[in-house]
Write a structure and sequence with these properties.
Largest sheet: 7 strands, mixed
Strand content: 35-45%
Number of helices: 2
Order of helices and strands: EEHEEHEEE
Shape: globular
């Protein structure tokens, strides 16, 4: 699923919204968005992760300034993976949703 991100007038807090956008459409139309990724962790449990994507190029410093709310529980996402490219930014998880 794709989650377009909207920012506050002040600060770097980003709030996701649900959408039916395709990845291609979001890449063209959204300045920032999350895509969800599902993977098994080292214990074999299925976990949900989110990849941050940007329309415009971001350096690592630019990508680290964002605070992002979880699309599911509205908690704060925690970055757990590095930036892949200038447009495929960090990998995030929600510690509240992924609790035991």
């Amino acid at each position: 699923m794709i989650y377009p991100l909207r920012g506050q007038a002040k600060g770097n807090l980003l709030t996701p919204s649900n959408s039916y956008y395709s990845e291609e459409y979001a890449r063209r139309m959204c300045n920032l968005y999350l895509s969800d990724e599902v993977a098994k962790d080292e214990e074999g449990k299925v976990r949900k992760f989110y990849r941050l994507h940007a329309k415009h190029d971001h350096t690592q410093e630019m990508a680290l300034v964002y605070d992002i709310k979880c699309p599911t529980c509205n908690g704060r996402l925690k970055q757990i993976g590095r930036q892949i490219s200038l447009n495929e930014l960090g990998l995030y998880t929600c510690t509240a949703c992924n609790r035991e």
